[in-house]
Write a structure and sequence with these properties.
Radius of gyration: 21 Å
Number of strands: 10
Number of domains: 2
Structural class: alpha/beta
Largest sheet: 8 strands, mixed
Order of helices and strands: HEHEHEHHHEEHHHHEHEEHEEH
Helix content: 40-55%
CATH architecture of the largest domain: 3-Layer(aba) Sandwich
CATH superfamily of the largest domain: Phosphoglycerate mutase-like
Bound molecules: 2-acetamido-2-deoxy-beta-D-glucopyranose
Oligomer: single chain
Shape: globular
Low-confidence stretches: 1-15
CATH class of the largest domain: Alpha Beta
Distance between the termini: 37 Å
């Protein structure tokens, strides 16, 4: 709860730093609530999985509604800070760009509906249900030297992974022993199975084994919970305590940590998106507000490449929660005549998502973020030039 208190204190400060003017905002967002990604969950448990009314990996109606509220909420803030006026924006002031998948395109459209209702704001995206190269966090460099460095780092992290308790909790919930995965493929224990690194040019860095299975399963529990399913349909009613949720969610957190949270790997896979962001900040004619709608993999790799310090989001099990937004803000200090950077993670808590609470002044939490190499003052600002030097060096 102490963390939450800080978040609120901070939110008040946002409006009382006099003489600071907001001049540009880039939001990197994760899509909102979606159906589970894996279609063959049946193999992983003999229990009956909940039925979703859309195909795998699609934004749900509730996800769209929550994202629309986020759009309305964020645009109010942008207007309050005078970055945008009350009029409909043109393409020189607002630009929205989503990855090609349905859940990211529709999240951006929902955001725009809420933010710029009855205005003509286009969501830009490739329209093909494929990953857009800008958002695709894949390995591109064919150097064997780089390959060896990355695999070594991943293996070191895998060796230190401590998920035994989480796996034991999960095995019990899914009844792994009676699953096809055990009976047909002979994977009868996650604790005793090793993960194997998957490193292919043109693919995302990945692992095969219990971490990937566990991630699919826990992700589906988390989405069912957010979606508001009755509790007997969420992990078959067996996730009864916060402690159990935290134990399970550790698997999804570590999955992202193992796959994307490294400096060298992240610089490689996030290069196109980081270049895109760098150009937005380098170009004097760039839109004042840009919304980029992508995935947790985008947030994790971009943050790791830039060197964000470790952070904790109160009342969330996910490290990059559904619908959560990294908000990069350029401020001008009129007194000192300098530009400043401020970064916040804005997100809804687990319970706000489940209850479908509309984003209002009381609801999303603002977490203050810091980048190593861009030390913040007591109000959370760091020097713009320090930040740009970091981006230019990537
Ligand atoms: C909306 O914007 C698009 C792209 O900028 C443009 O082609 C279209 O004519 C606009 N529609 C209206 C109704 O203004
Ligand atoms: C690929 O990685 C190697 C080793 O780190 C580096 O020397 C080379 O410049 C990289 N190539 C590209 C195209 O980035
Ligand atoms: C986790 O379980 C494996 C397999 O039983 C064991 O080798 C390993 O030492 C355990 N790790 C920890 C941290 O207890
Ligand atoms: C990312 O990696 C850093 C350095 O290894 C580590 O301190 C941090 O806890 C990791 N973050 C997450 C969310 O796992």
């Amino acid at each position: 709860m102490a963390g939450k208190f800080n978040v609120y204190i901070f939110f008040n400060l946002l409006s009382i730093v006099i003489g600071h003017e907001l001049t540009q905002v880039v939001i990197l967002s994760r899509h909102n609530i979606r159906t589970p990604l894996t279609v063959n969950l049946e193999r992983l448990s003999p229990n009956v999985w909940p039925i979703w009314d859309q195909q795998a990996g699609y934004l749900t109606a509730k996800g769209a509604r929550l994202e629309e509220h986020m759009g309305e909420y964020i645009s109010k803030w942008l207007k309050k800070e005078n970055l945008l006026s009350e009029n409909c924006p043109d393409e020189n002031s607002v630009y929205t760009y989503a990855n090609g998948l349905q859940r990211t395109r529709n999240s951006a459209k929902a955001f725009v509906r809420g933010a710029f209702r009855s205005c003509n704001v286009t969501v830009h995206s490739i329209n093909s249900d494929k990953m857009d190269p800008t958002f695709h966090p894949i390995l591109r460099n064919t150097s064997n030297v780089l390959r060896n460095v990355i695999i070594k780092e991943m293996q070191e992290k895998l060796n230190k992974l401590e998920l035994n308790q989480s796996y034991r909790d999960l095995e019990e919930i899914i009844d792994l022993e009676n699953s096809d995965l055990c009976k047909k493929d002979n994977v009868c224990s996650f604790v005793n199975t090793k993960d194997v690194i998957y490193y292919e040019i043109g693919e995302e860095p990945n692992v095969e084994g219990p971490l990937a299975y566990g991630n699919s399963i826990v992700d589906s529990f988390i989405m069912s919970y957010y979606e508001g399913m009755p509790l007997d349909k969420v992990g078959w009613g067996k996730i009864t305590t916060t402690k159990k949720w935290e134990s399970l969610a550790k698997i999804t957190k570590e999955n992202q940590n193992i796959r994307f949270n490294y400096s060298i790997l992240a610089k490689e896979v996030a290069k196109p998106l980081i270049n895109y962001i760098k150009e937005l900040f380098d170009n004097e004619n760039a839109p004042k507000f840009t919304l980029l709608h992508g995935h947790d993999s985008n947030l994790n790799s971009v943050m790791a490449a830039i060197g964000f310090k470790y952070y904790v989001l109160p009342d969330q099990y996910e490290h990059t929660p559904i619908g959560g937004k990294l908000i990069l803000q350029k401020w001008h200090d009129k007194e000192l005549e300098i530009d400043l950077l401020k970064v916040n993670y804005v997100y809804q808590t687990v319970e706000q998502l489940r209850e479908g609470i509309k984003a209002t002044d009381e609801s999303p939490l603002w977490c203050e973020m810091e980048i190593s190499g861009c030390p913040i003052d007591e109000n959370g600002y760091c020097h713009w030039e320090d930040f740009m030097n970091i981006l230019r060096a990537l």
